[in-house]
Design brief:
406 residues, alpha/beta, Fumarate Reductase Iron-sulfur Protein, Chain B, domain 2, Rossmann fold, binds iron/sulfur cluster
Length: 406
């Protein structure tokens, strides 16, 4: 694709990078075939190729009009378009630059601004989010559908008792608890600790873990996102000096932490530490698979429908690993149709784009429930809450299925 970005933009790192990405696109449109919003809405501007054109126009003219905002807001950041691109266009990275540019060029109406700031402030602060979740549990029945999916289906904010600390261990790891996960689905973190204990692996406790920054990043609040990342890195770098592996069990957080090196590459004070943290981080599935940890089946369930979060399969490029672990634990994996399809959760998307989000969830649940599973397994707290709000079939983190009953 030919580009004509202004020289002052090309002189910046992000402008130069945007130009490289844009030039790699040959506008073939193969990416549209795997884009959930294009499939649902059928509008070229709601597919990756159209959005790439919109971002190109914005960067070339230095103006962000309402059409750009509408169609960039509708993007789920699922990155399902990336694997289907023959030219290797880094769409997710371009979208980040596009959203950041848009946020600087275009002021949203007051209510939208407040909603977006509140989402980041409340959801990324466990103490505040816990209060909201407890309140939500009382008035859940009265909440509109768009908000119900953001709150856990079970009585919330209850911390599961962690297993006793392992003293005699061969090694230790650092566990990222996640700001939303530790409040909304504490059973996931408790399951991970049980699994580690079962395998004589200790947990190196960290204090000061912060939001990974992913939520603010997706909303175009780049500086706020970078601040969260720096605080998180400070906590993680301080956690031991043995270079212990950092485990992430919420794939939406893992995809961001693994990208810290790129995201803070221009920060002279933090780039090296950011790279180091990113290199030490693994999704828990990679770790369990690599270390061949002992797994136990939960006898309540046999037939499992697996929902692969976009942040796991497209963002982190991990496909087939959890499925293999569930089978090794003794479960029957059901062949779910359209396994690449997004469930529509996408972080704050479910609250900001409720119609598209719910339409995608309906389609996903139809596929997941078609073969009558005992349980739906997933790897991200957002997907778990979003799907769980619309079905009576239990939706659990896969870790809960491989650690036996608590
Ligand atoms: S598939 Fe890749 S090269 Fe083709 S239009 Fe999409 S982003 Fe551009
Ligand atoms: S990230 Fe997802 S929703 Fe956005 S353009 Fe790519 S495939 Fe479509």
């Amino acid at each position: 694709m030919q580009t004509n970005l202004p020289q002052d933009l090309l002189d910046t790192v992000s402008g130069k990078r945007a130009d490289e990405i844009l030039r790699a696109c040959v506008h073939c449109g193969f990416c549209n075939a795997t884009c959930p919003t294009y499939q649902l809405l059928g509008d070229e501007l709601d597919g990756p190729r159209g959005r790439i054109y919109l971002i190109k126009g914005m960067l070339e003219t230095g103006t962000g009009h309402s059409t750009v905002q509408t169609h960039l807001d509708r993007c789920l950041t699922c990155r399902a378009c990336e694997p289907s691109c023959p030219s290797g266009v880094a769409y997710g990275e371009l979208l980040e630059i596009g959203r950041d540019t848009l946020a600087r060029h275009r002021r949203r109406p007051l209510l939208e601004r407040l909603t977006r700031v509140a989402l980041v402030h409340v959801v990324s602060r466990p103490a505040l989010f816990r209060i909201l979740v407890r309140l939500g549990a009382w008035i859940r029945w009265a909440l509109p559908e768009r908000l119900r999916g953001l709150l856990p289906a079970a009585p919330a904010g209850i911390r599961e008792r962690s297993p006793r600390e392992v003293v005699d261990v061969k090694r230790r790891v650092v566990v990222l608890e996640g700001c939303v996960q530790r409040v909304a689905t504490p059973a996931s973190n408790a399951a991970l600790r049980r699994l580690l204990q079962d395998n004589d692996i200790g947990v190196l406790e960290i204090s000061g873990e912060q939001c990974c920054g992913g939520l603010a990043l997706h909303l175009g609040q780049t500086e706020r996102a970078h601040q969260s990342m720096r605080r998180n890195i400070a906590a993680l770098v301080g956690a031991g000096d043995g270079g212990e592996t950092i485990l992430s069990s919420a794939s939406g957080c893992g995809v961001t932490v693994k990208d810290y090196g790129r995201l803070l590459a221009e920060d002279p004070l933090w780039s090296r530490k950011a790279r180091r943290v990113a290199e030490r981080t693994l999704d828990v599935a990679e770790f369990v698979d690599r270390e061949q940890l002992r797994l136990r089946r939960d006898a309540r369930f046999t037939r499992v429908a697996w929902q692969a979060p976009c942040t796991l399969q497209h963002g982190q490029g991990i496909s087939g690993t959890v499925e293999g672990l569930l089978e090794r634990a003794g479960y029957q994996l059901l062949p779910v149709a359209e396994p690449d399809a997004c469930c529509g959760s996408a972080g704050s998307y479910a609250a900001l784009q409720p119609e598209i989000s719910q339409a995608l969830r309906e389609r996903k649940l139809t596929a997941l429930l078609a073969l009558e599973p005992d349980v739906i397994a997933t790897a991200n707290v957002g997907c778990q809450m979003h799907l769980g709000a619309a079905t009576d079939v239990p939706v659990l983190h896969w870790l809960e299925l491989v650690t036996g009953r608590p």
